[in-house]
TrEMBL record, chain B:
Native source species: Paenibacillus glucanolyticus
SUPFAM superfamilies: MetI-like
Keywords: Cell membrane, Membrane, Transmembrane, Transmembrane helix, Transport
Protein name in UniProt: Sugar ABC transporter permease
Organism placement in taxonomy: Bacteria, Bacillati, Bacillota, Bacilli, Bacillales
Membrane topology: Multi-pass membrane protein
Amino acid sequence: MKKKVNVFISFIVITALLLTGCSGAGDDHNESAESPGDASGKKVKLTALITKHPLTKPLAEMEWLQKVEEAAGVEIEWQEITADWGQKKGTMLASGDTPDLFIGPNVITDADFAQFQGLFQDLSSMLDQAPNVQTMFNEKPDTKVIATQSDGKIYGLPKYQRFWPASASRQFINQQWLDNLGLGMPTTWDELYEVLVAFKEKDANGNGNPNDEIPMDWPGGIGGYFNPAVLLGSMGITLTDGSGQGYFVEDGQVKNFLTDDRYKTMVLFLNKLYKAGLINPEVFTHDYTKYQSIARGEGDTAKVGFTWGWVASDRFGEQLAPQYASMPQLKAFADYNGKLSWSYDYYSLNYGPNHIVMSAKTKNKEAAMRFINELYAPEVGMQVLFGSIGPNIKDNGDGTYAVLPPADAKMDPGTWKWTSTMADNGAFYIPDSLKLTLGTDMQEVLGQSEPLEPALEVDPDKDVFPGMFIKYSTIDNNTMSLNNTNVMNLAESSFAKWVTKGGVEAEWDSYIKESQKAGLKQNLEIMQKYYDDYMNQN
Amino acid sequence: MESRKRRNTFRRDYQLWIMIFPAIIVILLFNYIPMYGIQLAFRDYDFSQGLTGGEWRGFAYFQQFIDSYLFTDLMRNTFLISLATIVLGFPAPILLALILNQIRRKRMKQLMQTTVYLPHFISIIVLVGMLNVLLSSETGVVGHFMKALGLGHINLLASTSTFIPVYVLSDIWQHCGWNSIIYLAALSTVDPQLYDAAKIDGASRWQTIRYVDIPALIPTIIILFILSMGNILGTGFEKIFLMQNPLNLPVSEVIATYVYKIGIISNQFSLASAIGLFNTLINFVFLYAMNTISKRMSETSLF
């Protein structure tokens, strides 16, 4: 018996030795691999993390990226993240075990810089090593404001992609259904109601079944892109970046539409639509995939009458897109004479904060900076966004370029772009002087934005909340995010209840009081303070 | 005296000690050592200073949670969901075990047992996916069925009044069979002579259950009930989080999902730790109270 125990114990000891032995060897290996890189002038090894779109192909297969790494004399080991970065980030940063570079849209936020002090490299003193970044700061001073923290440090560099329209959301109605039923394009909410009732009661898509039409749909919830919150523009509210949490600016005041009387009016209208069966009954429970797929219809038969989206070919598929027309903003009432507005998203679509961030632990910072500088070169910038010269972009040889259509004819240009390159998630700068002809998808976006142009004639300095340019202190940031969690908890459930079951008028006053208690008042005070400071400086 | 007894057990039962040694290590490593992180609930989280370096804040974060706007809602929702799970979910496996025990044919019994265990192995994300598909008011089987019955468009997943029933019933369906195993094991220890004696005395099946089976189960029931009281505020996270949508949020926001939103999404580690610790303390109080009550009343207890 004793013998067996001894065998058992020695087994445990040996296993333990083996385990520690292995990890020890691993460490040695790492160190020996890194040191010769510098000494002999070979390529410097860097590690980098990118939050990319799930469709994007492996980074090793991007021709332009190979050339950029070559030019900068670096060899990058990529960690490619396609989902749940928000959840992975906290634990990764808290452990301090980070790659040399982070790339992605707001991949590390200003709040993270404040919370994880000392983890990220201040680039402000190294900018002389990156002339292309300096060019961006000089030509587009807004980018420098976005990059600079309140203490003057620069941890993350922004992107500028120039071509995108002033709003992410466009309003679509099925023109073919209107024609089938002999109806005109609605211009007010009441006319919209009449049209949607006709969509519901008659066989608008002409397939013999009068009950398979969904008159109106959106991704669910309140605020954000492609959301009925844009209808607040019918009463003059200019949303900023979709106003996901309700904040907007009017007459120098920071306000929140969630407690605005005009929001109540809109909720009443949506409730009227819902009661009449005009809104998709699953609007609050379906996920984004189902929301997208239902609008693609079946073959030539469209299912959705009125909705919001980025561009018709993406929202409805290439086959159904021609049936839909982009609409101008509606008037809330026939006798409404005030200004019409929309969601002004120009800054968030064309600029993005913190698209590339360097870790303070990077061993060879000069090499990392060389790589950053290469990324921000004009000809590289367009390849980061649209793909490599050759398969994705045509070089006309006279200093002008053109984005090529997808190699696979069945693929739409948007999908092609996201498959081929980092696209909007990359870090880059496209100067206004670059001569580039856009692909059909971007031309379509810009074309479909035209009906909204009158509503988007806003003064970006006065009517838009400069969210991207304001840097909050850590304490204020924490307070605000806690309050917003509480406010949105109340707002989301109230909105869903009022739209589906009604009752907004009876509950409005107590709802306002609850919202203030949940922290809305405090948040508005904080934001007003920062907003005033910002306006005084500029 | 006491210490000598303890030394004796090491010498006498050393083989047993060696056998549970790995388990002790695992529990120490993963359950006790990480507890030093609890102090995060009492201090600020400062990345540059490490876990223990932030400024000491005492009970400030507990105060913040108790004063918080959602406090009463969170407590009520968490309590209601766990209470419903315990009240309805606890007796179900006992009944199932008693019924299974009545099946005389061995093969049939084995088949039945395996069938009722199976749902336990469905992952939660798949289960919630199934609920979404089956209960969808437009396209689901249950939705069509209710429409056929003339109940109209009731979206079971998106209503404050149906969230708890859907949650609890699907939970029972999934885990009832698995949880009945322990009761079946307890029933298998009943001395067959008792059944024979009951038969000779002319007891009906119902009377056999009432006077033989149930008394045999009582100690197991009490122990398991005490353990379940330790979960009075423990709703679990994944299933509720996956079932949440804006329409059921007033009843489905529980402590676990709120901690996730505060701690992981908004990076407020200290507040999230305080809320988590608060939750655990209440669970512990309930567990301890139930244990004491049971010790007094029936002399069956955990410790």
